[in-house]
Amino acid sequence: MSLMNVGVSALTANQQALTVTGHNIANVNTVGYSRQTVGMSAQEGQQAGSGYVGRGVQISTVLRQYDELLGKQSNAATAASKADGARYQLLSQMQNVFTGGDSGLGAGINSMMNAFADVQAAPMDATARNVVLTRMSEMAARFRAASATLEELDYSAKQQITNGTAVVNSLAQQVANLNLQISQALAVGHTPNDLLDARDNAVREINQYVQTTHVKTSDGKLNLFVGGSQALVMGTDVGQLQVKETTEYPGSQKLSLYFSQPHGDLVELSASMVGGGEIAGLLKFNNEDLSLGKNSLGRLAMAMGAALNEQNSLGLTLQGNPGTALFAFSQSTPGYSNIPGFQLEPPSATVSLDSAKDAKLLVASDYRIVFDDTLGSSKLVRLSDGVTRNLADLAIDPATGGYKADGLVFTLDSSAVGRKSQSILFQPYNKASHELQAVIHNPDDLAVASMVSANINSGNKGTLQLSQLAVQAPVAPQTSPNIPAAGEPIALRFNADGTVSYATFDAASNDYDWATAEPVRNPLTNAIVQYQSGQAMTVNGWSITLTGTPSENDTVTVNNAKDLGDGYKLNAGNAAAFLDLRDKAVFDNGTTLSDGFSSVMATVGSRAQSARYAAELSASVAANLDADRTSISGVNLDEEAARLLQFQQAYQASAKIIQTAQTLFETVLSAVGR
Fold first, then answer.
1. What is the pTM (predicted TM-score) of this model?
2. 644 DSSP β-pair partners
């Protein structure tokens, strides 16, 4: 009977081993399944006088092949990979907004600017003027379309974050339910391998959306944490995630992840606190990358619109009136804060384009004012690069009393001044591209005629020739160009020492008042100008560029254009100035209008390229760690096939033991029967 018992135990053990091997083969394609093996141990031997005789084999347990350290590393790498991948996916879509080609914004800007060439050649041609207006409308429409695309990306990111939080909440509930089942199963004395696989797989899926850490309890439950220390799952209790606007700056569209603890308060988690996972990458895109895109597009629209509006104001329409604005766009936006007493309507704090309209100073960035004990010691922080300035060090705008910086004016009233360390967020370019509109639709209102005209005295003995005559923007507190009044021309006289003097026409003497003549000075340094061929000279709001060599006492007369009667309409000096804007430094203290869009393309493209490298690297790391994990936990069909043969042969041998025992027993019975 002892031999029979040994055979039966062996048969049973090998049968269970075959079952476990078959279970492995059946789950070779099951996501999250960990390979299982049978743990066998010898049964305690029986004292037979001459020694202990074995009583066979028994199944001690079914082992789950799983490395917890590799699992944690793989989860962390997966979270980082998903964050980088989600961010890069949306950044690559944003990059398409700033693409080149004929359908791009750059082509639209260049087409509009080049259209002024035909107007310069034929300033009274209605067709040429209408082409300019058409190109203006097309260009504004491209800006609005680009802005709409960014808004769609904003909406898409928010939807993905919302959907991701719903998935995380559902998976967290699964983990809590599995915690209960696992703790109950462990109380029986053996490990529920398939339940553990299901729980680990749920945790792995959660890490695709938000990075977690976990701690196991003595009863087998798994406590899951997000944001460092926030308990998403505590035993069988579950927290909840949701996404909404940050409490720091309501109305700014900046998002945060909020965590509701089991039986606890609502905790706000920033993207950096979330760490990894798709939600962290989407939050970073929404709060940082998308802001860059909107600011770059809005700054481009604002700087270009301001430059063109200003240039049109320096010319005359066909009716002889100074030009009005060509484009309408948002030039003032409110600040955002949760400071007590702060109101959005009417705005307690605003940022607006500086009345000086120096577009070269504009920087594509959000700003923040952080309050200190006094307003003067409070700080203005440029968020794109962290440049910080004291409000006390900034110039004051005489019109509003606001603080001037980077071509903007930051205006505060008493209700916006909060306690120390509180702040206000400003997004000066957030709406400019979305609201850009061409507002001139009558070709006669295009101010391409110059406000001034010049005449070189026919009696001059030198070789002077007129190269360019341009009206300049007014300098505050002026509101219009300071040009010669009608009927009061100004004469330039070239002196023997190379200097140039100018005098105003005296109606009483019917001649120029050279007795009160002034030397032409550099408007920036106040130094007396020496004439140089091809170099512009600035006089009272207009500049003139002459070539050639003058003789002593040669003169050039500059008149108000209306002194020519209807002849001013043939003067396309302001159209030439529009064309010159293509090469004028409009952005970043040096970038020209024609290159402004290329600069934005490079900035966005560089960020997208950096995100692509990060996504590829983190994906590679995650794949390698997951391969290491599955090399231990994964099912290899070749290995399982070998084990199948091994246990099959052992099973057959066990049956042979039973058969042998049966033969021996029958022999004994036969002998006793005789």
1. 0.83
2. none
